[in-house]
Amino acid sequence: MIERVLVAMDDSEMGEKALRYALEAHPDAEVTVLHVVGEPSPMMGQAVGLALEDDVQAAAEELAAAVLDRAREIADEYDAEVETKVGWGTPAKVIVSRAADFDTVVIGSHSGSLADQLFVGNVAQKVFRRSPVPVTTVR
């Protein structure tokens, strides 16, 4: 039985679909939404900017606020509550490192531009291959 679900959510349509799927498929489970900030980019912009902050956690939470607010709005549509978490670093690594605390992971099948996917790699694919628990990818 699925009791704890980790939903990896970014600011994409696929991220929102992943959360909606988790809330519909596992209505009685505890759902935690994780947003990872500071991912690498071709110019290392956000990752470098975050690393230079005095309080990295506070800066990460500020960058994640809009995504996590949207997650709570979606949960409200389902009359559900979600716990929200912020991670920083490489998205796939952060998601996989936290996956063991859950029964399953739900993630959107892709996000970002084609250039981002080519440079950073497909996060969903990496999570699917490395996760210690089952992963559902949502399209």
UniProtKB/TrEMBL annotation:
The family this protein is said to belong to: Belongs to the universal stress protein A family.
Domain UspA: residue ranges: 1-139
CDD domains with a match to the protein in the record: USP-like
SUPFAM superfamilies: Adenine nucleotide alpha hydrolases-like
UniProt cross-references to Pfam families, sorted A to Z: Usp (PF00582)
UniProt xrefs under InterPro entries: Rossmann-like_a/b/a_fold (IPR014729), Universal_stress_UspA (IPR006015), UspA (IPR006016)
Listed name of the protein: Universal stress protein A (UpsA) domain protein
PANTHER family on file: STRESS RESPONSE PROTEIN NHAX (PTHR46268), UNIVERSAL STRESS PROTEIN (PTHR46268:SF24)
Organism: Halorhabdus tiamatea SARL4B
Domain of life: Archaea
Spans through the membrane: none
